[in-house]
Structure formats: C-alpha cells, structure tokens
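Example 467.
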Amino acid sequence: MSAYKLLIGGKLVDGDMTMDVVNPATEEVLAKAPRASEAQLNAAVAAAKTAFPAWAKTPIAERKQALLKIADAIEANGAELARLLTQEQGKPIGDATGEVYGTAAFFRYFTMLDLPVKVIEDSEGKKVEAHRKPLGVIGAIVPWNFPLILMAFKLPPALLAGNTVVLKPAPTTPLTSLKLGELIKDILPAGVLNIITDANDLGAALTAHPDVRKISFTGSTATGAKVMAGAAGLLKRITLELGGNDAGIVLDDVNPKEAAPKLFQSAFQNSGQVCIAMKRLYVHESIYDEMCAELATLADNAVIGDGLEQGTQFGPLQNKMQFDKVRELIEDAKKNGKVIAGGGTVDKPGYFIRPTIVRDITDGARLVDEEQFGPVLPVIKYSDPQDAVARANASPYGLGGSIWSSDPKRAYDLATQMSSGSVWINKHADLAPNIPFGGAGMSGLGSELGEEGLLEFTQLQVINMAK
Ligand code: NAD
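Predicted structure in complex with nicotinamide-adenine-dinucleotide:
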C-alpha cells in the first residue's frame, strides 16, 4: 500500500502493484508509489471516455473556471509540492518552487484563450465556418526532468478544448503528479482527468488503446518514434516533443566574462537535464581560450548538493540510468578532448556529477553529436560563423539554438539561417506559455503552448452552407 493513489474515474485508488521511488540525492527510498496494472489503465481510459460527452458540452467559460481553480490549488499547496518535487526529481528547492508556480501560471494562461467559430467566407452564395471540436480521450505522457511544468504544457489546453485526459508521468517521478491528482480531484467532474503511474510498461498500451484519440508525448526521440508507430494503426493525432542537441554559437564580438555566466546557466540548469539546454557550444577562435577559462571557473565554483540544502546550485542526475549514461559520455570525451573542470562524481551517496567542461573537442565525438542530457558541456572552436551554423544544423535534432553577439543585425542574420524550431539571440531556453514551442527534424512533431498548442487538441470542422 502507498500513501499516494491513482486517480481513476474521480476516485483515488490503490495501484494493483506498488513500486519504490528513490530520492536521487540520497539513493534512499523516498516513498512507495502505486503502480497501475493494464486493467487499471483500461479503467482510466474507460472513465475518460464516459466523461467526454458531458465535458465536451460544458461551456468553455465553466471549463476555464475549473482550470483557474486548479491553478489556485497548486499555489495554495505550493510549498509542499515544491519540496516533493525536489525530493523526487533532485532539483534545488528554488528551481522546484519556480516550476510549481510556473505550472499554475500555465493553467491560468490558457484560460485567456478561446476557440471561436471563424467565418472563412460569407458571400452571396455561401457561408463557410471553421469550428474547433475536441478530439476525445487524450493520453498525456511526461518525462522525469520537469514532471509538473511539462504536464502543464498538455493538461490545460487539452481540458480547455473539451477533451478528457489520462495522464502518465515518468516512473521515477510519479509523486508530484499523484499529489496533484489528490489536490484537484473534486474540481473536475469524475473521469475528466485520470492519473496512472507505471514502471515504464504502460506507455505502449496507452498509445495503442483504441479509445485514445491523441497522444501528447514528451520524452526521448527513441520513445517518440515508438509512439508514432503505435499511433499509426488508428491514425491517432500525435504531438511529439523529443530530444535535442541545441547549439550555442558565440561570435567574436562577445565579451567572454560577461557572457560566460549566462552560457553556463543555459547549459547546466537542472544539471543539464533540460530538453532545450545548450548541449554544444561553438566559440570563435579569437575568444576561445578566454571563454573556456571563464566557464571552467564557473564550473569549479558551482555548489552541488541535495536540492533541499540551502545554497545548492545544482542537484543530482535524476536516476541511475541517466547517471551511468552521462559518466560514460564523459569517459569517452576524455579520449576526444580535454576536461578542464569537473569530470568526476562526488564522494557521497546520490547521483551527483560535477559540472564538467570539455575543450579541444569537435564534431564527430559522441559528446558533441549525441544528447548528453547531463552536466557536461563540450566547447568547440570555430573560425567561420557560416561554418558554425552549418555544423549546428548538421544534427538530426532541431529543438533550439542560439546566437550570441554584441551586433544585433549580425546575430539576427545568422539566427534566420538556423534550422531549429526555436532560436534565441543572446539568451537560450526562454520558454513562456504564450510562445509556441516545437522541434524540427528528430526533435518532434507539432507544437505545444500558445494558440498553436491549443489548436493541436482540436479537430478542425468546416461547415459550408449554401445560401
Ligand atoms: P523517455 O522517452 O524514456 O520517457 C518518457 C515517457 O515515455 C515516460 O513517461 C515513459 O514511461 C514513457 N514511455 C516509455 N516507453 C514508452 C512507450 N513505448 N510508449 C509510450 N510511452 C513510453 O524519456 P525520458 O528519459 O523520461 O526523458 C528524457 C528525454 O526527454 C530527453 O531526450 C529530453 O530531451 C526529452 N525531453 C523533451 C522535451 C521537449 O519538450 N522537446 C522536454 C523534456 C524532455
């Protein structure tokens, strides 16, 4: 038995099984979580299907009220949720607090949007309207790096548009989602939102379930491809937010001392476990040595520790599998480049890796070509900005990228040549609920957030009337 419960059909229920959730800062079991069986997954989808017709007919103003109440409930329990988030995910409590209140803000943002009927033509012979209808049951699948805010990319627009949802968080970070279910279960009619947790074994069944009309998925590219294949048989709608290998390109007119702290934060926030973290940094040869030295100093001075401890800047990797993967990439990078800061683990329990800077490394090395998703940054020397853009674009990924320069025109010109879904200038990874976000290439399909993100949870219907 677990103190945490699944939410199925408006009821908090035990899982048919349980599983341990580990605190990555201590490697100790933090809590037992429920683990749903496939029968419970089916019950959750059935509850969502039953709840759909009434929720779809509920006036949008009432659906907005529900979203606002959810935002209120998140804020009212902000401190408790933030603490739990740090304990299960590892991030510092300040970052966790930001994620919790950001989640509430994302729910509020979507209440400012509407789905009005659009008149496309109103002429002598005909009137043509575009309507936006809900799709039905949505499967929302979330990874472990930002369990709450990534859920808030999906739930508010899905519910606002009149869909019902089965939410599945990642196996290693289920607790905040389950806690949220407990907090908001009476706000929504039974079955409108269902939350099930698994041991990485129910995603495929949720994707393939005949009563699920759309999968909104955030996670790795490899799993995203499986979702796409699983959804193909019934031509389900899919939105895929996948992995990235974001490049930052620093031009020769940048002051290394001024830019280094911002670049460092862009790469190491959440210990590098951010889909749009800066994952490879191209620096012009004229400032390369100075920039490497600045970044190494920041890495050497970084405070690593349990996210609940005052002063911690960076927490552990979230799970053992990711910890092992990043260590392997660092070992490989030692053969292809020079580690000038970090490079090792911390001598205490927990999945800690010190922020690591690798210089004299270039394209073709695993650390440059693959998504590290951890606290290690390759710094690559270039001489021609056009060549740096070409190398940035050569990746199969295309999530984000950034250009850093003191000349706005030069930066803008290069930014327009980048092939990623988002490009930032003199910053990196600036996301907001009103700004659509999506990946090019193998970083995804479709977009989330903003009006575009809302429309992805609807079916377009054209009504074409003779006059
Ligand atoms: P993952 O793909 O291993 O897991 C993501 C989710 O998919 C989990 O809930 C998992 O249980 C579920 N899942 C596993 N097998 C499945 C299957 N066959 N069908 C359906 N669902 C299945 O990813 P992860 O390791 O948890 O997350 C890290 C990855 O997520 C990184 O690549 C990162 O870049 C990416 N990410 C992308 C974004 C974005 O918005 N583009 C945001 C955050 C993370």
